[in-house]
């Protein structure tokens, strides 16, 4: 939550620092590293909703897509939508989770119809762009990378529709989104956001130096591509010690040498057949075991419970 002053009033929050605060409110980008459970979701939702509310006070525009929040999984995206709906009660701000079949970009022959801004539908769908697909109207869209990139596709894997109305782009679990598995999709969305005043915020519990370098390089490349004045206002906010273990959780590293050895060690850890020799207490259920892939999780479950 310590990021709120930076995102709500950056010129005030950084007034005593060496950062140039001229026009900072529209150019500040943030990279935040904070432990799980520290309030990152609220920290990026509150400024996004506040900016939309403030702009709407001086504008008669209808619901335009102003903010996109990217999460690596559908479950995380759903949690963000739920929190966003709670925060936006009474503000008139609409927040939706991306679903298959949603149409975000109006087609050329229906753009004129969409100017009327008919708000009769409470499900955040306004007008029709074709006989089969309505145009989704929302202020904030929460999505996973691939489904959103498909919605922006113009028929080619490298050709995507621009998003001129998007002023805020949020990456939750940014270290995962900029990992090679999601990187191409994430950067494709990032490059589609062509608004000169775009603010990018990246959030994660851990953040390697390579991810920070990639983020800075992407921001500078985008500025050059759009012909914008180059600036370096990527502010890094770290809660606690960067890339350090959470102090209230006990961590153990067990060397198993081989895959069979790992399985034996895990069985002994979860269902010990003898007392531990190092004086540590045996683990008590329930257990939560993470694996790198779904097939690996299925295989491990079969091995542990046969």
From TrEMBL:
Residues 21-225 form the Helicase ATP-binding domain. One of its GO terms (molecular function) is RNA binding. It is an enzyme of class 3 (hydrolase). It comes from the Eukaryota. Its EC number is 3.6.4.13. GO terms for biological process: maturation of SSU-rRNA. It catalyses: ATP + H2O = ADP + phosphate + H(+). Residues 107-132 are annotated as: Disordered. Keywords: ATP-binding, Helicase, Hydrolase, Nucleotide-binding, Nucleus, RNA-binding. Signal peptide: none annotated. The Q motif is unique to and characteristic of the DEAD box family of RNA helicases and controls ATP binding and hydrolysis. PANTHER family: RNA HELICASE (PTHR24031). RNA helicase. ATP-dependent RNA helicase involved in 40S ribosomal subunit biogenesis. Required for the processing and cleavage of 35S pre-rRNA at sites A0, A1, and A2, leading to mature 18S rRNA. Belongs to the DEAD box helicase family. This is ATP-dependent RNA helicase. It comes from Monilinia fructigena. The lineage of its organism: Eukaryota, Fungi, Dikarya, Ascomycota, Pezizomycotina.
